[in-house]
Specification:
The chain is mainly α and 80 residues long. It has 4 helices and no strands.
């Protein structure tokens, strides 16, 4: 496997953290901050849980995990 493929997840996480941090510092538009899934979860001890957002995020996670498992099953292996 190419070395750049191993680092895609790390790069994606760094990009999300950087975008969230920069958008908070510059007080950017809400559409940029709304791309982060972290901001859609309510601070549960201080506020009532937002069940709709939680269900959507869990559903998207299940879909992403299923797609990842399907791609993992189709990987190109040479030899045994």
């Amino acid at each position: 496997m190419a070395p750049w493929r191993d680092r895609r997840g790390v790069r994606a996480r760094r990009l999300v953290v950087a975008l969230e941090t920069i958008s908070a510092i510059v007080d950017s538009n809400h559409w940029l901050r709304d791309t982060s899934p972290v901001l859609h979860i309510a601070p549960v001890p201080a506020a009532a849980p937002d069940w709709t957002a939680a269900i959507w995020l869990v559903g998207l996670g299940v879909v992403a995990a299923t797609a990842g498992l399907a791609a993992f099953g189709r990987r190109d292996l040479v030899g045994a």
